[in-house]
Amino acid sequence: MSEHNIEYVRERMIELEKEARAYELARRCMAMKKKKRKSFWVIVLSYFQR
Known about the structure:
Largest sheet: none
Strand content: under 5%
Shape: rod-shaped
Structural class: mainly alpha
Distance between the termini: 71 Å
Number of strands: 0
Radius of gyration: 22 Å
């Protein structure tokens, strides 16, 4: 492997790591939103059941 290839691979790895981190954050955010939405509906339903 030449120096150029090693540098390219290193850059690609960094990019992939960034993408993976962004994806993980987005997934966690979506999970939080789903939980919030669920709890919101639970509150609404309990309010109407009173």
